[in-house]
Amino acid sequence: MAPNDHTGHGEATLALTEVHQDGAMLFQSWGICACLLGPLREQLGQPRMESYATAEQVLATGLAVMDVPGVTHLGEAL
Q1: pTM (2 d.p.)
Q2: In the prediction, which pLDDT does 9 show?
């Protein structure tokens, strides 16, 4: 079977949050081809939560989080 051609479809980020029994959370994300979003949404069904942020809001939030003393920065070297 030939691999799918993902040329020119754009990129999306697939994010996962795993909640542990002690209340801790593991956040992970992967870059995927945007053409996979439609089939993935069909498979997963209605989201539990959904939000939208402009690029400016995302940057401001990220910078604010990075400034919090003691925040663990995972994956910075990836």
Answers
A1: 0.57
A2: 81
